[in-house]
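We close this part of the discussion by returning to an individual protein. The encoding preserves chain order, so positions in sequence and tokens coincide. The sequence in question and its structure tokens are set out directly beneath this paragraph:

===
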Amino acid sequence: MFDLTFNVDDKGMLTPLTLAIEQAVIAGWTGRDPVARDKHIAELEAIGIARPATTPIYYRCSARRITQDDRIEVTGGDSSGEVEFVLIGWQGRIFVGCGSDHTDRKVESYSVTVSKQMCDKPVASVLWELEEVIGHWDKLILRSWAVIGGARVLYQEGTLDAMLPVKDLIDRGFGGKGLPDGCAMFGGTFAAKGGIRPADRFEFELEDPVLKRKISHGYDVIALPVLG
């Protein structure tokens, strides 16, 4: 368990809230549309990553992999980010945030579970109350950009109507018992435009076009040398 301090956005007013993060769950293959879901599976198969045992599937990684830092260090040049919404349970409430499931793709080719543990998972410092957005959840937009060789390109974009509904996602992952307090769950992602590839910097956002607000974050990726 460790503490992270967020700012809860309530009609433009930011209120600090410190949450004790006890577990991290990375939900994968959460697409509502089986065609789009299978496209992402095929995208990963193309780089040697085996199909999942189930869809959706709920991987676990160390809670301390979650960070609000603006830079992370990775081993070698085979990792990349993925924008995802993040659900955090706290005292019976659920908050919505945005993060990146940064993953080592080389390791992922032989063990997805191990790959999830290899890299830090950057998250933005702002949260929304789920109840404020659940009525227009499907209209929320996830986007990411990759900075490669100095050029910033749109990497992912899609609306949450492509993902499993929140209740369904939570029920499947926790046996209908609700999201546990202190659990941060990443909710899945979209296929990358132009294919999965590493970047020098990764930026992401969750946009609410109804309440006209965004949650944004970005981080530099520092590749450490592989010497043997």
Summary: The helical segments are 34-45, 105-108, 112-118, 130-133, 166-174. The radius of gyration is 16 Å. The first strand starts at residue 2 and ends at 10.
